[in-house]
Sequence to fold (256 residues):
Amino acid sequence: MNTLSGVIAIATGCGLLWLSLVAKFTDRESTSIAWPVTGRFGQLLGPVAVSMAEALLVAVLLAPLPVAVRLLSLAGCFSAYAAAAVVLRGRQCACFGGWLSTRFSTLHAVGCVGVAVLALAGVPGGLSPRAATVVAAVSVAVASIVAVVLWRRAASHAGQAVRDVRRFVIFTAESCTYCAALEAQRSRYEALTDKPVEFLQVDGEEDVERAGRMFPAAVGYDEDGVPVTEPVHGLSRIRDLLRRSAAEPAMTGSSR
Fold:
């Protein structure tokens, strides 16, 4: 049973860590915007630092090290994740960039504790170093396939036409570097679509909720003022949304 616990812990932990790494690297802008740790702690526990720690742990799980060292490292990592989920409960989780939009919750913390417990339970097991490496490598391969599926799903969604939009509102916030960059190029963004574009700096909780609690954000509204698109975050994604909303050019010429 202890051996099985170690196998499950390595397979689950290594796969999640690798998927998280790929997602954050591929969707860096969304990761930076949604990153829940800010201020002084954000400089120490930003996405780059966390990604480096995750990459190091994946390397440890794949390396020919004693199984106990790998499992104890994994237990420590996911114990830290569980504590973070409790402290950050309710905030946006940027573990998987913009591919999987979730919030820290009790279930998030319980899942991380579960991986840590399985890792600790597997320490006295009989899992060999070679078998542990094989399990970690297989989990990386599976996670890579999942990453490709999520990436293709995001790309497919980005290519869909935007219909029924009559105007856009772009929400910005103070002390947001992405927002400052966007507002400095208002004319460029307005030129991307044939719909009116309103720039609104949030003022109050209602605006924050309308923006999806991340900035900058763009929302498309119909002629009655009802939102017909989900909030889209990040400069590149906002530009893509505006482009997709422009009316298709009319066909010219005649057939004979």
